[in-house]
Amino acid sequence: MKARQIVLRSRPIGMPTENNFGFEEIEISAPKDGEVLLKSQYISVDPYMRGRMSDEESYIKPFELGKPIDGGAIATVIESKSDILKKGDRVVGMLPWATYSKDKADRLRKIHTDEFPDGYYLGVLGMPGLTAYFGVMDICQPRYGETMVISGAAGAVGLVAGQIARIQGCKVLGITGSDEKVNVLKNEFGFDMAINYKTTKDLSGTISELCPKGVDCYFDNVGGEVSEAIIAHLNYHARIALCGQIASYNTATQEMGPRLLPQILSKSGTIKGFIVGDYQKRFLEGLSHLMTWLKEGKLHYTETIIDGFDKLPYAFLGLFSGKNIGKMLVKVNE
Amino acid sequence: MKARQIVLRSRPIGMPTENNFGFEEIEISAPKDGEVLLKSQYISVDPYMRGRMSDEESYIKPFELGKPIDGGAIATVIESKSDILKKGDRVVGMLPWATYSKDKADRLRKIHTDEFPDGYYLGVLGMPGLTAYFGVMDICQPRYGETMVISGAAGAVGLVAGQIARIQGCKVLGITGSDEKVNVLKNEFGFDMAINYKTTKDLSGTISELCPKGVDCYFDNVGGEVSEAIIAHLNYHARIALCGQIASYNTATQEMGPRLLPQILSKSGTIKGFIVGDYQKRFLEGLSHLMTWLKEGKLHYTETIIDGFDKLPYAFLGLFSGKNIGKMLVKVNE
């Protein structure tokens, strides 16, 4: 059968463009034993994928030139040669950016329930939600009454991280990039405070005013000047969960900033970079908490869904200009 | 009785000078109940004391203008009004920079044995040795065969940290500031490798060559460009024990450097600033290991002893130009 897929046509230097992606039509052969044929439903775009576009050593191997981009996706089984999955099953897995694909059934995870919308398994009940959970609970380890700052607060991870911090009894300040997001964070997601870093003239002074007791925990999705302004106000024994550095993903040269190690030392602070895969053995614990909080109404969630397979590059690039509130997904309508 | 003491005459901006210190003659009244009169034997000078010369909030309060500097010292009890200590006892404690002083007996720790030279209790068996122990064992948690880099490797802490890393089975690279120290580290203290950062043209390239498997642990006493060169070669899940930042203690303005958080994130690294006081409950564990390694000949130690109370400011300032190998102490001969 015929399918369309999106490949890495060229590696970006600095900010990627639509030209880095190429569309191809391909023929998919019939599934062999143990394989299933899949129809893509939702495809996830995530900031970490920018790293895979470059040819750099990392915890996950780079995309290959001329080969399809792959990432988190939800698909429906349309034909099965496996005992594990049957036609009509919905699955989540690492799939190519393609309208249809073929895969080994044992590489996929079946969605067993209709309690939550399918898209949740790419967001609050997927990698972003688990990332938020372990970053807050294991790295920040917040105590009741502490102050936590979240950068990239309206993104897929930040939105969940801030709410988990609230559930733990923290006073939470979200840093985000538009007035609309400030309102959403405060009015729909219960953040105690939120600011638009793009229009805040004295970011460091404002953080100091909003966090009069200092910053105990910082969940960093962004890096750059925002992080530098926050790190200036750490409390003794502060903890920083280093989850993302989106501000620097598209810089082609080494950026300079104030040296931070002296500040970290003087506060006996901890900075821990992590990826959710480090916590694989505890995924069930995380999922169980996230599901419970969702059902109890303590945790809210939202998605920015872009319609149409062809919009995948557009949606991905939109992550770097802050087009999304919550998880950015592309709905495949073919 | 009469004594001489050294007070903070003025707060330095940037590098301190001898003019920041003032000498005074004082009268010490007879000890009251619970107090002892002390004759200073050895006074410790330590890089962290630079922070206390500034009027900045920290884990330890600043020295007061016009009041004596205080720090680690070993003294002999010459008169006692306490049941805890008797005349002739040797003690270690936080004492003023003075030839004689008076203190509450319960603030002092008695030296019970002659197994080790008294000076060791300000070094390898004092705060520097314990700092090295917990930084390596608790923060770096090295595994057999890993590569550990130590900056400030010939200092009181670095010298011990490097040897503990060797005892744990690490391959150890020491970074230091003179060819003499390079030789000492390699030939007397068993460091696998050592380099003089002042004469190494391409520091980053040299570290890369000497650590072909990358850097798993970094024990940082120095900061600045040396740390930046090392952090460029971290392995996945690398651990950095942030113990000192002597390169920046005397800079009056905010220094700029390459942004390090993206590198830490991409390696899922951990940076943890600490002071030895965080480990108070485990001091006996640390001391017991350090004493055992000393007795077994696995751990070696050296001191740079400057003669004469008047030389205290000189000795302290010498820390910032690398005049010491191992612990810098002043012997009080009055």
Molecular structure report:
Chains A, B: It holds the Pfam family ADH_zinc_N. Chains A, B: This is Putative NADP-dependent oxidoreductase YfmJ. Chains A, B: It comes from Coprobacter secundus subsp. similis. Chains A, B: Keywords: Oxidoreductase. 2 copies of one chain form a homodimer. Helices cover 25% and strands 29% of the residues of chain A. Chain A is of the alpha/beta class and 334 residues long. Chain A folds into 2 domains: 152 residues, Quinone Oxidoreductase, Chain A, domain 1; 157 residues, 3-Layer(aba) Sandwich (Rossmann fold), CATH 3.40.50.720. In chain A, the strands form 3 sheets. In chain A, strands 3, 4, 5, 6, 7, 15 and 16 form a 7-stranded mixed beta sheet that branches. Chain A has a 6-stranded parallel beta sheet with strand order 10-9-8-11-12-14, sandwiched between helices. The longest helix of chain A has 14 residues. The model of chain A has no long low-confidence stretch (mean pLDDT 96). At the A-B interface, strand 13, helix 7 and strand 14 of A face strand 13, helix 7 and strand 14 of B.
List the topology elements.
The structure is a homodimer of 334-residue chains.
Chain A: E1 2-8, E2 21-27, E3 35-44, H1 49-53, E4 70-80, E5 90-96, E6 100-104, E7 109-110, H2 127-140, E8 147-151, H3 156-167, E9 171-176, H4 179-187, E10 193-196, H5 203-210, E11 215-220, H6 224-231, E12 234-242, E13 256-258, H7 261-266, E14 270-273, H8 283-295, E15 303-307, H9 312-318, E16 327-331
Organism (chains A, B): Coprobacter secundus subsp. similis
Protein name (chains A, B): Putative NADP-dependent oxidoreductase YfmJ
InterPro entries (chains A, B): ADH-like_C, ADH_N_2, ER, GroES-like_sf, MDR_fam, NAD(P)-bd_dom_sf
